[in-house]
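Weekly puzzle thread! Below is a chain. First person to post its structure in token form gets bragging rights.
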Amino acid sequence: MRIRRRPLILGLYLDELALLAVCLLLDFIEYLIPPLLAPMVGDILDFVGLVFAVLAFSWLGFITLLELIPGFDVLPSFTITWFTWYLMRERRLEAELERELERWK
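Winning reply:
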């Protein structure tokens, strides 16, 4: 178990905050740029976002497959993926801490 520094902003560590910023940026680009993008470029952006999400969040990144379905671009799927990852990670870390505390009793 690695030792982590205090939370930086909003109770988030730097790695969590960086992933959230990238996810928000990807969703932001999806909402503001589509009128300027040709359909092919938008699909390439969706695919790049999908690859990023799978690399960053492992199997949870497949939630962003919704971006490839026509009409689902209105959902902030990258941000939803981040929140799902964050909640599952916090639960896992809490369970690990409880197991470690039980071991020391």
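Puzzle host: Confirmed. Bonus trivia for everyone else. The helical segments are 14-32, 39-57, 77-104.
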